[in-house]
Design a protein that fits this description.
The chain is of the alpha/beta class. Helix content is about 30%, strand content about 35%. The strands form four sheets. It has a five-stranded parallel sheet with strand order 2-1-3-4-5, with helices on both faces. Strands 10-9-8-12-11 form a five-stranded antiparallel sheet, covered by helices on one side. It is elongated and about 60 Å long.
């Protein structure tokens, strides 16, 4: 299961930047975003996240005080402070912050934080896998390696960074198994890993065709049934 994450910052661009970096380099599930202390604590109470990325200087309240409130609501939640000022490091240490990252965010610094989180927080249980077929052999795939799934000649095809496979699962069953990852149904015959979308091409009747990384020659449709949800997720006006 991916770790649940909440991002709290009173600057929208900082939220967008951090969200981009986290989803690019990890399998975190971002449960919500907040710009103030009240919104943050409501999200924490609702989701009991594994990690909160918290701006240490919110407009309405100091992030250290917010961190103390978070711990009262969800003691197992880990705090990663994000700030433009290094002098808060001692305060962060006092509330047992898991990590402390400085703005502007650097890719490698975020990767280091992600690796620390995965090594120390992520529960050690059975791996999330999908078993697929290649000719007469079974192959074990990680969901993060799947680019998209489709129905072709009444067979469920799984296209991944490790090759093309088939599975006895229906597309609906795959959608259910992959719901905690960044997958979305874009058509009755297509299930897409949003992280592998390379280009979005406007098509007829206000729909789209998707170009997927690794499978650039394929045409993956977004049908009218799913267009509203797709535009909302992909922040298309």
């Amino acid at each position: 299961m991916p770790l649940k994450v909440i991002i709290v910052d009173d600057e929208k661009y900082a939220i967008s930047e951090l969200k981009y970096l986290l989803t690019r380099y990890s399998d975190f599930k971002i449960c919500g975003e907040a710009t103030d202390a009240g919104g943050c604590l409501m999200l924490v109470a609702e989701y009991k996240p594994d990690v909160v990325f918290l701006d240490i200087e919110l407009q309405d309240k100091n992030g250290v005080e917010v961190a103390k409130s978070i711990k009262k609501i969800s003691s197992d939640t880990h705090i990663v402070f994000a700030t433009a000022y290094s002098h808060y490091a001692v305060d962060a240490f006092e509330v047992q912050a898991f990590d402390y990252i400085l703005k502007p965010f650097e890719d490698q610094r975020i990767i280091d934080t992600i690796n620390r989180i995965n090594n120390y927080i992520k529960p050690k249980g059975l791996p999330e896998v999908i078993t697929v077929w290649k000719n007469d052999r079974m192959v074990v795939l990680s969901p993060k390696d799947i680019v998209y799934c489709s129905i072709l000649d009444e067979k469920t095809v799984v296209k991944s960074i490790k090759g093309e496979f088939t599975t006895n699962l229906t597309l609906s069953s795959l959608e259910n198994k992959l719901q905690d990852f960044m997958f979305m149904r874009t058509h009755k015959s297509y299930l897409v890993n949003l992280k592998y979308i390379k280009e979005i091409i406007p098509w007829f009747n206000h729909t789209y065709l998707l170009v997927m990384n690794g499978y650039e020659k394929d045409e993956v449709p977004v049908s009218r049934t799913y267009i509203k949800k797709f535009k909302s997720i992909m922040k298309i006006d």
